[in-house]
Design a protein that fits this description.
The complex is a heterodimer of chains A (about 280) and B (about 240). Chain A contains five helices and 13 strands. Chain A is of the alpha+beta class and about 280 residues long. Chain A has three domains: about 30 residues; about 130 residues, no CATH class; about 80 residues, Immunoglobulin-like (Sandwich), CATH 2.60.40.10. In chain A, a hairpin with a 5-residue loop joins strand 11 and strand 12. With about 240 residues, chain B is mainly beta. The chains are: A alpha+beta (about 280), B mainly beta (about 240).
């Protein structure tokens, strides 16, 4: 190992010399292959929407929790709220440290880190009770917990780039306009308002435990038990329906006929309503 | 007679297949397992080395030999990493690589995290680190002010500066597995500590391996704290019977 460290030290010294030489312009015409620690490249192309980021955040949060977690109960009772804001990773990190977004350090120690810091993300903040099952030292038997869970989600890929859990959430409002969603039976004031005047959107996810249930039949009924709309979930358990404003019962069945519960939902004008259904 | 031998062979084969190390289940209590490693949803299992010293800089070279977290989509994870702590078991800084949730079963991603004043923060790289080579993870209070820098292969990738002490008092490095079924996980590590100048090998390292996990000296460099650690499944899948 001493040999490896010596090599690393020598390499570091040589790299430093290379940087100095490059800065002085003496190495013009010499190109060295760019070394990266990982295979990360800053993603390009279309970004996911705030609503999709919220859905992804809820799915990620559920996966971080034990099945009997308070979060699952919050989702079932419709008391969980989610706030979503678009930013860059560097700015979110600055706000997490209690600094303004303008204090964000956007240049990393190498190209890979710079690309990561300047990548666009959604800060997705859930409120409730959280005990994410994250790594901890051997002698620590109690997992971290808190009343908020902040997830940093890559705006292109939907990958989770980090999380924070604790008692006092950072001020993500400093990052820009927030889209707010109430999970379960409520409605959300999202940034999306492209609906016909007397309609809103019902969307959600069907779960079996933590697993998303694809191709489940989702049925929306009115108060007279008349079916007003049906759809199938996507391969990752998501569904979306445009509905007239009103109160409905949403239910689902798996392809094998297993019931996935019922939930009362209220569709408000030009609003998103998110609902989760848990198969028995 | 022939029929008897065939029956005995079949029974033996079934038994061997059932109890083999690649069965995927953590060992039961009767096999020496504990609830922590035996199917509880939040059970965390460890195979690692511990070292007590006051230091400014902590380094772990980590070589991933096997990562296969079958239940990655259900929240399961395995990390190959180092932790430093400061005399308070509720607070720590850590870095290394993680395989499993929220990523896939079989590709390690570098990460770092801290738990301080009741707040846990974790940063995950979406990139994958190469397996089978020693990757370098370092935690360094370079400014002697309780701001701990995270350094990967010589690159400063972030820091935690929320009022940590200037020096850590404990280093841990090895494997952590969080899964209801046994994941494949195996690593080799080389570790050292420093006060900002010369690197020193660990002295008097303590090994801790819970039932179902394996540990031995790193065959490439057997200094204290340099171990090969992982799950029995990880060992089995790489040809090490432990």
């Amino acid at each position: 190992m001493r040999t490896r460290m010596t090599v690393a030290t020598v390499c570091a010294a040589l790299c430093a010399v290379a940087v100095i030489v490059t800065a002085g312009g003496a190495s013009a015409g010499i190109s060295t292959p760019e070394e990266r620690f990982t295979n990360y490249r800053q993603p390009t192309g279309p970004e996911i929407t705030a609503t999709e980021a919220m859905e992804k955040g809820v799915q990620l949060a559920l996966g971080l929790q034990p099945a009997e977690s308070p979060l699952a109960a919050s989702l079932a009772s419709g008391t969980a709220t989610v706030e979503v804001v678009h930013s860059t990773l560097a700015e979110v990190r600055a706000v997490e440290e209690g600094q303004p977004p303008s204090a964000a350090v956007k240049v990393g120690s190498d190209a890979e880190q710079t690309e990561l810091l300047t990548s666009t993300v959604y800060a997705v903040e859930l409120t409730g009770q959280f005990t994410p099952n994250v790594s901890r030292p051997r002698k620590v038997r109690t997992p971290p917990s808190g009343t908020f869970l902040l997830l940093k989600i890559d705006a292109h890929t939907g990958n989770m780039l980090g999380l924070e859990v604790g008692p006092t959430p950072p001020d993500i409002a400093a990052l820009g306009p927030i889209s707010t969603f109430t999970i379960g039976t409520g409605a959300g004031s999202g940034s999306i308002s492209l609906f016909p005047s007397k309609r809103g959107v019902l969307f959600g996810t069907v779960f079996s435990g933590h697993k998303h249930v694809g191709h489940a039949l989702v049925t929306v009924s009115d108060r007279h038990h008349r079916t007003v709309a049906t759809t199938r979930t996507t391969s990752v358990g998501g569904f979306r329906l445009s509905l007239h404003i009103g109160t409905y019962i949403v239910s689902a069945r798996t392809q094998s006929g297993r019931a996935c519960g019922k939930r009362k939902v209220t569709i408000l004008r030009r609003r998103n309503t998110y609902s989760t259904l848990q198969c028995s | 007679m022939n029929r008897w031998w065939i029956s005995a062979f079949v029974v033996l084969a079934v038994l061997l297949g059932t109890v083999g190390p690649a069965s995927g289940s953590w060992p039961s209590k009767s096999e020496g397992g504990t609830n922590e490693c035996n199917g509880t949803e939040s059970g965390h299992c460890y195979s690692l080395a511990e070292h007590y010293v006051k230091g400014l800089d902590s380094i772990a070279y980590i070589k991933d030999l096997n990562v296969n977290v079958s239940e990655a989509s259900k929240g399961a994870r395995s990390t190959h990493e180092q932790w430093i702590s400061f005399g308070n078991e509720k607070e720590w800084v850590e870095t290394g690589d993680v395989t499993g949730y929220p990523f896939d079963c079989c590709n390690p991603h570098p990460f770092y995290a801290e738990k301080k004043a009741g707040v846990y923060k974790e940063e995950l790289s979406p990139g994958i680190v190469p397996a089978g080579v020693y990757n370098h993870y370092e935690l360094y209070d370079s400014e002697h002010n309780g701001s701990w820098h995270v350094i990967w292969n010589g690159t400063d990738v972030g820091h935690y500066g929320g009022g940590w002490p200037e020096k850590y008092t404990e280093q841990n490095a090895g494997v952590e597995a969080v899964s209801t079924s046994e994941p494949g996980s195996l690593e080799r590590q080389e570790v050292a500590w420093s006060n900002g100048g010369e690197w020193f090998p660990w002295t008097g390292a303590t090994w801790a391996a819970e039932p179902g996990l394996c540990i031995k000296s790193n065959p490439e460099s057997g200094a204290a704290g340099n171990i090969q650690a992982g799950t029995k499944r990880g060992a089995h899948e790489t040809g090490w019977s432990c």
